[in-house]
Design brief:
By secondary structure, this protein is an alpha/beta fold. It contains eleven helices and 19 strands. The protein starts with a helix and ends with a strand.
Length: 464
């Protein structure tokens, strides 16, 4: 009987959602930025992430869930200064930091200042090593009460059974749980829980409003539509939800990128609703051939189609594009080939990404358990690329065999400076092309002065 009552309530809620007119998806606000700190402020301009000098910025790095509570499991080891230094020296420039609503708001209306200081400390550590932070209020399987992450245990519906089905892998036990899906449905169909979610986001954002080392906020991780049909979910719930959240957060922090994700429903396209707001970024998670079958066997076309689907969504909003998660269990026999193919596509389409992930106790991490960093795997991911380009970055390609990065930059002012990621284990770089010269080099970074408005340049290891 109780289950039937929840079903009736959900059906009524769904009916109301379908009958009500969709809110206007336009959010207006002006930035109010103080002087930049360790890193330049980032914005979105003409579909690109740019720094305060107008240079196109490509963010590549890692997810690190040192601050993420998952069920009752202990937190992973913290990101160390040595970890951040290694990321910097290998040419990365961003860390996506999944944080926990459950730890942020352990009891209703009480926000943990101690936890906020932990998030600040991780952001500051990354900034000291030239790494931007993307803050992600992470949700998976609704919340910690069901062994997932996200909502605090006090925010759950009563009386709905958390059934586990025999013979099914542990993650799918959570994904299919009636309790998980009932709580998610209640969250999406009833605005009172959404109000609590944005209230938690405002607490986070108010701490970082003046911090330029934070690139932006990933507003909701991997939303999925059940029990609402995917198309209706996107048009009537998901993108209006984002618009409402951006209005709420921008009232306390109008200064950062707002990152929105499409719905997670197998590998089907999201129905994107135009959402006009300053500094908007559209993000997808790329797991075709990795988590999403069939397994990779050298066929690049499905990987390309998945990336282009994300780029198409970004153009429809309109927004810049960034891949918030990209990864594979590198114990798989095809892992190296898959990673090389994905990074080559990101070069071709001039996109950034955050690898899933830095630390993981299984084969998904660069660092597994308390063991040392897997240097061989890190070297697969550590490829040179253009981090910041004045004018227009028109093309980029990396040849792993010769360690040769080629790039074309157009419309730059002579004397403008481009920045290239250059992993330290490649040794000293040389710049050639006649229109560029090496300006400075530091661990993981090369500064290049452009001598002409249009320039085709190469960067390669210095011979001899």
């Amino acid at each position: 009987m109780r289950g039937a009552l929840w079903l009736v309530a959900g059906t009524v809620g769904l009916g109301l959602v379908l009958l009500l007119p969709a809110p206007a998806l336009t959010v207006r606000f002006a930035t109010d930025r103080p002087a930049a700190g360790a890193l330049p402020w980032l914005s979105v301009s003409q579909g690109r992430i740019v720094d305060s000098g107008g240079r196109t910025v490509i963010l590549r790095g890692f997810n690190d869930d040192a601050l993420l509570q998952t069920g009752t499991a202990p937190l992973p080891p913290p990101l160390s200064a040595a970890d951040a230094s290694l990321m910097e020296s290998q040419g990365f420039d961003v860390v996506r930091i999944p944080v926990s609503w459950s730890l942020l708001e352990p009891t209703p209306g009480h926000f943990s200042q101690g936890y906020l200081r932990q998030v600040e400390a991780m952001v500051d550590l990354c900034a000291r090593h030239g790494l931007y932070s993307v803050i992600d209020l992470h949700t998976q399987d609704f919340g910690v009460a069901f062994g997932g992450s996200g909502a605090p245990a006090w925010l759950t519906l009563p009386l709905v059974p958390d059934w586990h089905f025999p013979g099914i892998p542990a993650p799918w036990q959570r994904h299919l749980s009636p309790a998980v899906n009932a709580n998610l449905a209640f969250f999406w169909l009833y605005p009172n829980w959404q109000r609590l979610y944005w209230q938690a986001w405002r607490q986070l954002a108010s701490v970082f409003a003046a911090n330029s080392a934070v690139a932006g906020y990933d507003l909701y991780n991997e939303p999925h539509p059940l029990p609402v049909p995917p198309g209706l979910f996107s048009t009537r719930i998901l993108f209006p939800f984002y618009a409402a959240g951006i209005r709420q957060i921008s009232a306390v922090d109008p200064n950062h990128l707002f990152i929105v994700e499409g719905d997670l429903f197998g590998d089907l396209p999201t129905r994107v609703v135009p959402l006009r707001a300053p500094n908007l970024v559209y993000s997808t998670h790329l797991y075709q051939g990795s988590l999403i079958g069939p397994s990779y066997a050298g066929q690049v076309s499905p990987l390309r189609a998945e990336l282009k689907q994300g780029l198409s969504g970004a153009s429809q909003l309109p927004a810049a594009y960034w891949t918030g998660e990209l990864g594979i269990d590198h114990n798989q026999g095809d892992a190296v080939a898959w990673a090389v193919a994905e990074i080559a596509l990101s070069d071709q389409y001039l996109t950034g990404w955050a690898w899933w992930q830095w630390y993981d106790s299984t084969g998904w991490g660069v660092r597994q358990g308390r063991a040392k960093v897997d240097s061989a795997w890190l070297s697969v991911l550590s490829q040179p690329y253009v981090q910041a380009a004045p004018g227009t970055l028109a093309a980029m390609r990396y040849d792993p065999a010769g360690h040769l990065l080629s790039a074309e930059i157009r419309g730059a002012s002579p004397g403008a400076v481009a920045q290239v990621a250059w992993p330290q284990d490649l040794g000293r770089p040389r710049v050639s092309g006649g229109c560029a010269r090496l300006r400075a080099a530091s661990p993981g970074r090369v500064q290049i002065t452009l001598l002409a408005p249009s320039c085709k340049l190469t960067v390669a290891p210095l011979q001899g």
